[in-house]
Design goal:
By secondary structure, this protein is an alpha+beta fold. The protein has four helices and five strands. Strands 1-5-4-3-2 form a five-stranded mixed sheet, with helices on one face. The longest helix has 34 residues. It is elongated. The N and C termini lie far apart (95 Å).
């Protein structure tokens, strides 16, 4: 006949071992999920490409890439825009009429966590006036992106003309 105390000790040992194994597996899978959820540099860089492509459309399409309370410090206006409607206004009045196309010339991406990242550097815009004459404008930029409701949106965007070299 089996010893009831020995049987209880065996059951407690098995339960402790199972709990330890389950805890270890959960910790590993949580760490893997968090790592897998972080965006890549390429994913963040592609957000600029999406924005640049949107410049060929209408101002609403560009503004929709910004968070509702996004902030834009624009290249061609001294007015800071602090919501999507003001951002749309900038693109309607100041930027899209110039038919801009941008090319990044220097890029630095920082992934902050699975839901936020920054992208800074330099870009050159080709602007076209009403007569078809083109001008190149070198500028510096910073985008702060946040994933909101599963969609990457611009929460901060600063763009300024690169100063002349002294």
């Amino acid at each position: 006949m089996r010893n009831p105390t020995a049987r209880r000790v065996q059951l407690v040992a098995v339960a402790l071992l199972a709990t330890t194994a389950l805890t270890a597996l959960t910790a590993c899978s949580s760490a893997d999920a968090a790592t897998a959820a972080r965006p890549t540099t390429q994913e963040i860089t592609a957000l600029f490409d999406q924005w640049n492509t949107a410049l060929k459309g209408d101002a609403q399409g560009v503004a929709d890439l910004y968070a509702d309370n996004g902030v834009l410090l624009p290249t061609l206006s001294p007015v800071v825009r602090t919501d999507r409607e003001q951002i749309k206004e900038y693109f309607v009045e100041d930027f899209l009429p110039k038919k801009p196309t941008g090319t990044i010339t220097e890029s630095h991406v920082r992934v902050i966590d699975e839901d936020s990242a920054s992208h800074s550097g330099n870009y050159t815009f080709t602007l076209t006036d009403k007569d078809g004459d083109q001008t190149k404008v070198d500028a510096r930029f910073t985008y702060i992106y946040e994933k909101i409701d599963g969609k990457w949106l611009i929460t901060e965007h600063h763009s300024s003309v690169t100063p002349d070299k002294p």
